[in-house]
Amino acid sequence: MNLKSRLGAIRRRHRASERATGDPMLLGLRMRTQAWVVALVLLLPSAYLGFAFYRLQQDNIDFAQKERAGIAYLRSSLDLFRLTQDRRYALVETQSGSASSTTGVAASAGVTQPVSRAQVDAITSAFARLAELDMTHGEALLTTPLFDQLRSQRDKLTALTEKTEVSPAEQLEMHTRYINLLRNLMVQAVDGSNLTLDPSFDSNSLV
């Protein structure tokens, strides 16, 4: 019996064995086709698990990047908040009569005022940095609508200082609105960047 005949006999015995003990779904398929079916059955779950692991890691990376963007946004907001509060405090002193040298304090949006040129420049720079960050991360953090409201209030403060006579009480009220908008913006930056869910964040919310 030559080699070809032996191989034929082996194949016939293999097919007979398959019919007796094999999977009915594989009956009638050639050995090569069966091998491909088995390979696909084994590879498809592995491919799915690999893709799921990749997506999980990518989600973790996106989460971390969003947190880093929120931290940068919040730091800039805190700088502007602190400087604006200092100017608002000067208005409170002016209104109470304990600091007459600060009468006619200008708006907290970076407009020139006689109290301190350095303070004015610092607020201008802080607002510009925050505006740049909002252009970069505002869409992801969902802060752009609130920042637009803050910018609008800043413009109102700027227009207020152009009046010839503006009482400290009126300026104080405008500053208070400005600070409230800035505070709401900071809250949205924390929520939008997932920092609210970070257990190591000092002001995290209960979830």
Overview of the structural elements:
The chain has 207 residues and is an all-alpha fold. Helices cover 74% and strands 0% of the residues. It has helices at 3-21, 31-96, 117-141, 144-161, 168-192. The chain is rod-shaped and about 115 Å long. The N and C termini lie far apart (79 Å). The relative contact order is 0.11. Residues 98-115 and 203-207 have low confidence and may be disordered.
Shape: rod-shaped
The total beta strand count reads 0
Mean pLDDT over the full residue set? 75
Structural class label: mainly alpha
Q: How far from one another are the termini? A: 79 Å
Low-confidence segments: 98-115, 203-207
- In sequence order, what are the helices and strands, one letter per element? HHHHH
Estimated share of beta-strand residues: under 5%
Q: Main sheet, how many strands, which sense, barrel? A: none
Number of helices: 5
Helix content: over 70%
The rounded Rg comes to 35 Å
